[in-house]
Design brief:
Blueprint (H helix, E strand, L loop, with lengths): L1 H7 L2 E3 L5 E3 L1 H28 L9 H12 L12 H30 L4 H36 L1
Antiparallel strand pairs: 1-2
Helix pairs in contact: 2-3, 2-4, 3-4
Pfam families: Ion_trans_2
Membrane topology: Multi-pass membrane protein
Organism: Thalassotalea psychrophila
Length: 154
């Protein structure tokens, strides 16, 4: 899998050696993960709901639709879980979906608006600080050697 990712150029390595994944790859992966989870949870939701007398979710499509609306936080209300297990599945889908949908929206808006990457800025500052500290140590050694020379002279 890593070989495929490297060859497909889903990321580029910056001057600090950090892998920066392309937004399109990250968005695609987030959608893929979201829909795989939704697909799996739909089966579980249908399983719990089909055992309940008052269930209004009776098909896989209805379960999938319900979880899509739950993940997107729209929640039309045309279908809703009535069993305890179904409510737990819907709650888990809400938290997972809310996180992934929020991630997707952030990535999309970030590519349009161009948010600055604070991680890169922090790495740049750490690099600059390390260079300054090294320079200070070198200057300190030079001053110490000058002090020794002056002590010998006086």
């Amino acid at each position: 899998m890593l070989v495929i990712i490297r060859k497909a150029r889903f990321y580029k390595v910056d001057e600090f050696g950090v892998k920066n994944y392309h937004n399109s790859y990250l968005i695609g992966m987030a959608f893929a993960i979201l829909y795989v989870i939704m697909f799996l949870f739909s089966g579980a939701l249908l399983h719990f709901e089909s055992a309940h007398v008052d269930a209004n979710i009776t098909t896989f499509y209805e379960a999938f639709w319900t979880l899509q609306m739950t993940a997107s936080t729209i929640g039309y209300g045309d279908f809703h879980p009535v069993s305890t297990g179904g409510k737990i599945i819907a709650t888990l889908m809400f938290y997972i979906g809310f996180g992934l949908v929020g991630f997707i929206v952030t990535k999309v808006l970030g590519s349009f608006i161009g948010f600055s990457n604070t991680d890169v800025r922090n790495r740049e500052l750490r690099k600059q600080n390390a260079e300054i500290i090294e320079r200070n140590k070198m200057l300190e050694r030079k001053v110490d050697s000058l002090v020794k020379v002056l002590e010998k002279i006086s």
